[in-house]
Automatic annotation (TrEMBL), chain A:
Signal peptide: none annotated. GO terms for cellular component: plasma membrane. It is found in: Cell membrane. It comes from freshwater metagenome. The chain crosses the membrane at residues 13-38, 58-80, 92-108, 114-134, 146-165, 201-221, 288-315, 327-346. It is a multi-pass membrane protein. InterPro entries: ABC_transp_permease. This is Unannotated protein.
Automatic annotation (TrEMBL), chain B:
It is a peripheral membrane protein. It is found in: Cell membrane. Residues 1-230, 251-495 form the ABC transporter domain. It holds the Pfam family ABC_tran. This is Unannotated protein. One of its GO terms (cellular component) is plasma membrane. Its main location: membrane. GO terms for molecular function: ATP binding; ATP hydrolysis activity. It comes from freshwater metagenome. SUPFAM superfamilies: P-loop containing nucleoside triphosphate hydrolases. The keyword Cell membrane applies. The lineage of its organism: unclassified sequences, metagenomes, ecological metagenomes. Keywords: ATP-binding, Cell membrane, Membrane, Nucleotide-binding, Repeat, Translocase, Transport. SMART domains: AAA.
């Protein structure tokens, strides 16, 4: 017989072992699936590895795919740390692209590269203010933030679509091919974010900023009064209020911080990669939701978010480039789903331990 | 049970404990908080697996690896915190998890009959949320009986009951024992153990220090076994009383009014003053505004009118932080969830209020080294028993939880200490420590406002007793002229 028994405490090493074991288990289960579909698992995995990480070009493409995930992952982790469930990373990301694109379009020509800090600021502010709507509702009216942030995602998605498809907005291209097919205006090339090239490996500027921000988040939560207050509030809001902490302001601050991180991701996306407000692409990307998965896999640790984002970016990059007649199209998505599934299973093992028990046969006296 | 050993992260909760329960007896497990009573009962009810030792039921060795196994072996557990579904009826709760089909009429009849048999009257069709705490406990007991429990374990069953309800419970337990079942009664209250049990097993530091016949022992002997030394029952020590500085009024309220959480007036015009070095006890039947009074003084509850002065300075009463900074320390009633962040570490709980200022933080930055140093000092000074400073506070025993709270509050050198039921739920040894700390606080010149329902505690500790009734102060008695009957009458609203 195998039983689950509750653990009295949580050993530190488990925090590392569980995500790694989850991913390994997902690969094993995925291998069975590939075998059933008539392919060779080892061959498939080596091709994924090859396309995701093996060469400078592959790794560069992976890092591009990882950059938006890094920001939405950090956004989710920052909020979940306090038990505030910001599901609105997607919408905050979209608003971040809208505000950053506007800034780039407005001053990209006149300011050149100096517009980049402005775009970052615009993205952060856009995302933060968008999230703050849900934050104010949660802090002062006790509205469930899961529902409000989720609803705000739809509003943000429709707003971005409207700007390009249903209006003659500042973001829309109103000349040339834009007259036939609705599309956004290309940001002035002067405002394109620079990349750091190391031989064949290209590190996107957004990824470097994101990594620095991850370290900043870690330090914020570990080494500041703010982080201390967040950890107490997540544990017991009553105790926090009793100790004189301003819990409502802190809820708002954390949601805004989370939204700001997602908005910064939006700024990086538009400045670094798309260079245009592309509502269709954004709405199909699912970055915000992937960020929740990444935060969960990283156990809300901002530094771990960086690695998980690169891993997940690698999977989706490989999936995109390997898709074809000899490669099952849904395989990568299935693998990603399995990683999450096993990670959640791993959470159970974090809280419970497995015990083998021996049954004593009936009627035996010892 | 023979040689039961259970270890938690290096701490032995049970160390080679053996005891036996006979059919038809009430067997008390007595011990201080943290002595290992709950661990032992959790082993017996299949929640924990022992690291060593065996369990025999009716002569047969059993392996209990889940509560289901325990139920199958006839062990029924009534936890301190009930496990009932509030929106279900009594009958539904009782048969919840059973595999046979549910026939409402038949089940309700069966439960009614069972209740009458054991003196546990409860309406099987009532929804659980409508029941009083005492009735809910009856449902838990019926649940165990319905599952043919021959051994019933009750973990501190009286903690949530009124004295009258406790009496009824004791009668039921004795009736069950007479019917041939066995009852394991877990408690740290001596008088209850004396009243209800046939035999007593005393646990100390995870070890069985003796099993005695109740009829041949005395409360004092049990207390000494429990604590392991002679216990001083009263803090009544005239020579060493704190000196009261009548010139310095550290806490004064003037015509204070406040509402309770449902918006009804709870504090209705209280004028109160506490001098430096004075201990004033506020007595009253629970629900007469004492709790709200304490919270209003500490700023965690908004006042509707009136004034509060701390060491002569008026407060606005809008913010708990203001009260903290003016020197008001507060031991709230709900220690583990209001006074402390339960899952946070001991060292973090010890700086829960001082983290805003140097040396614990400099500017926006926390100083982890200062936090650790503060924890080491306080753990040593107040004798807090914890595996280390990083341990979650909720893993400590009740007495040590209260020590963490007191250590933090007293180390800030406040002018006023407001303590709400600071010894409730603690065992003899911890009560002694907490009372000693309160006296110490007064000796160091603090004014102590002690909210308590325990009249003996009020008389032995305080210089003055004020009685609160229906939100007002019904009277004030000096310690030297204190008369329990008179105070009791005042508490009941008789002038």
């Amino acid at each position: 017989m195998i039983r689950l028994e509750r653990r009295a405490s949580f050993p530190k090493w488990l925090g590392w072992v569980i995500p790694i074991a989850s991913i390994a288990a997902a690969l094993v289960a995925g291998a069975l699936l590939i075998l059933v579909s008539g392919n060779d698992p080892l061959d498939t995995y080596s091709r994924i590895l090859d396309r995701a990480f093996a060469s400078g070009e592959a790794l560069s493409a992976t890092l591009i795919a990882a950059t938006p995930l890094l920001f939405t992952g950090l956004a989710a982790a920052a909020a979940f740390k306090m038990g505030v469930f910001n599901i609105g990373g997607q919408g905050q990301f979209v608003i971040g692209t809208v505000t950053a694109a506007w800034t780039g379009l407005m001053w990209g020509d006149s300011l050149g590269k100096a517009v980049i800090p402005l775009m970052i600021l615009a993205g952060v502010l856009g995302g933060a203010l968008w999230a703050a709507i849900a934050g104010v509702l949660r802090a002062w009216l006790n509205t469930n933030e899961i529902i409000t942030t989720l609803m705000l995602n739809y509003i943000a998605a429709n707003l971005a679509s409207w700007l390009i498809f249903n209006s003659r907005s500042y973001w829309r291209l109103l000349s040339g091919s834009g007259l036939q097919f609705p599309q956004g205006k290309r940001l002035p090339e002067g405002s394109d974010w620079p990349d750091l090239s190391l031989g064949s490996l290209v590190l996107p500027c957004g990824l470097l900023i994101g990594t620095a921000v991850a370290v900043g988040c870690w330090a914020l939560y570990r080494h500041t009064r703010f982080g201390f207050e967040v950890s107490i509030i997540s544990d017991s809001p009553e105790a926090a209020a009793y100790a004189g902490m301003r819990t409502k302001r802190k809820v708002l601050a954390v949601i805004a911080l989370s939204g700001g991180l997602a908005g910064l991701g939006g700024a990086a996306d538009v400045g670094n990669f798309r260079h245009v407000l592309d509502p269709k692409g954004l709405n199909q990307s699912g970055y915000g939701y992937a960020g929740i998965v990444i935060a969960a896999l990283a156990r809300l640790n901002p530094i771990a978010v960086v690695f998980v984002a690169v891993l997940m970016g690698g999977l989706s990059n490989a999936g995109r480039s390997l898709q074809g007649p000899d490669f099952p199209a849904g395989l990568v998505g299935t693998l990603q789903g399995m990683v999450l599934f096993f990670a959640l299973g791993g959470e159970v093992l974090a809280r419970y331990r497995i015990r083998r028990t021996v049954r004593i046969p009936e009627g035996v006296t010892v | 049970m023979t040689g039961i050993t259970k270890q938690f992260s290096g701490v032995l909760a049970n160390d080679d404990v053996s005891f036996d329960v006979r059919a038809g007896e009430v067997h008390a497990l007595l011990g201080e908080n943290g002595a290992g009573k709950s661990t032992l009962s959790n082993v017996l009810s299949g929640l924990y697996h022992p690291d060593a030792g065996t369990i025999h039921i009716a002569g047969r060795r059993v392996e209990l690896s889940s509560p289901r196994d325990a139920i199958a072996c006839g062990i029924g557990m009534v936890h301190q915190h009930f496990h009932l579904v509030p929106t279900f009826t009594v009958a539904e709760n009782i048969v919840l998890g059973e595999k046979r089909p549910f026939r409402r009429k038949e089940t309700e009849e069966r439960i009614r009959a069972l209740g009458e048999e054991f003196g546990l009257p409860v309406d099987p069709a009532a929804k659980v949320w409508q029941l009083s705490v005492g009735e809910q406990q009856r449902v838990e007991i019926l649940k165990a009986l319905e599952r043919q429990a021959t051994v019933l374990i009750l973990d501190e069953p009286t903690a949530v009951l009124t004295p009258q309800e406790s009496e009824t419970l004791f009668a039921t337990l004795r009736a069950m024992a007479r019917a041939g079942r066995s009852v394991v009664f877990i408690s740290h209250k001596l008088d209850e153990v004396m009243a209800v049990s046939d035999r007593v097993t005393v646990l100390r530091d995870g070890r069985n220090v003796g099993t005695v016949e109740t009829a041949t022992t005395s409360p004092r002997e049990l207390a000494n076994l429990m604590v392991g030394r002679e216990v001083v029952f009263s803090a009544d020590d005239h020579a060493n009383r704190p000196v009261i500085d009548r010139e310095r009024v550290v806490l004064r309220t003037v015509d204070l009014h406040a509402d309770d959480s449902r918006g009804r007036p709870a504090v209705r015009g209280v004028d109160l003053s506490v001098c430096a070095g004075e201990i004033v006890a506020v007595c009253g039947v629970s629900g007469n505004g004492q709790r709200e009074l304490a919270e209003t003084i500490c700023g965690t509850r908004a006042r509707t009118s009136g004034e509060v002065f701390i060491d002569g300075v008026a407060t606005t009463g809008r913010d708990p932080r203001e009260a903290i900074e003016m020197g008001v320390a507060h031991i709230p009633e709900d220690r583990l969830h209001t006074g402390l962040a339960a899952s946070a570490s001991v060292e973090h709980n010890l700086v829960l209020k001082s983290y805003r200022r140097p040396p614990i933080s400099k500017g926006p930055l926390l100083q982890h080294r200062a936090i650790r140093k503060n924890a080491q000092e306080l753990i040593e000074r107040f004798g807090i028993k914890t595996p280390d400073a990083h341990t979650s506070t909720r893993l400590l025993s009740g007495g040590n939880v209260q020590k963490v709270l007191l250590a933090r509050e007293l180390s800030s050198d406040p002018h006023v200490l407001v303590a709400a039921s600071p010894t409730r739920g603690l065992d003899v040894g911890a009560i002694e420590t907490v009372r000693g700390l309160l006296l110490d606080a007064a000796r160091r010149g603090m004014g102590v406002l002690l909210i308590t329902e325990d009249l003996e505690e009020a008389i032995s500790l305080s210089d003055r007793i004020v009685v609160m009734f229906a939100g007002r102060l019904a009277g004030s008695v000096d310690r030297d002229n204190a008369d329990i009957t008179e105070i009791g009458l005042l508490m009941g609203g008789n002038q």
